[in-house]
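Field reference: "sequence" (input) and "structure" (output). Example, Short-chain dehydrogenase:
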Amino acid sequence: MKDAFGLPQSLLVLGGTSEIALATARRLIARRTRVVWLAGRPSPALDEAAGQLRGLGAEVRTVAFDALDPAAHEDALGKVFAEGDIDLVLLAFGTLGDQAHDERDPRAAVRVAQTNYTGAVSAGLVCAGALQAQGHGSLVVLSSVAGERARRANFIYGSSKAGLDAFAQGLGDALYGTGVHVMVVRPGFVRTRMTDGLPEAPLATTPEAVAAAVELGLRRRTETVWVPGALRVVMSALRHLPRGVFRRLPL
């Protein structure tokens, strides 16, 4: 169960090697979290992440999970919930893709969409059902400001995040009043391995800053979190720009 401040004692991370997710796990372990499940493809990186969190004092387990294998999601994630209640599910997997390459290779573009959207819909619904069955818990979905309005430079990734964001908002509405809280997190450019080598966007942030925003959002039971907060105003302005003006911006 969550503590008096709304922070979880147990955490399930979907995307167990995500730098943002691991920064969040570290922060929550320092507060209250004692049991962590890392779901991801079996790999040395997943084992290393689990070991690092164990070193902070948490009981950490791993479970094999592949976003691109929705048929296996119910079984894999069901085993986690069968071991005990989960207070927080952090949906943190995703792929940026390579826009220039993916435009020329539709199969690669589809892989981005299947990972970021289809896989998230499947895993999100499985976890939402389990949280609802136990009568409490939070589902935190890592979206992106890229989903607010697709840009020429990354419209494949942006469109997949737009779909994810809309799904998560609708799921939150569907679960309202059930005891399950859904929170959508919209970071801007985050300095991680995924963005390494890319030109840094204005208002760039870090995994640790996103983790701090997630913690604050959980305490307040917020439904939408922008990181940094100034992006809410920036994206509101960009979203309403006439299309002819928007396409000429150096974005």
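The beta strands are 10-14, 35-40, 59-64, 88-91, 137-142, 180-187, 224-227.
Residues 99 and 153 are 7 Å apart (CA to CA).
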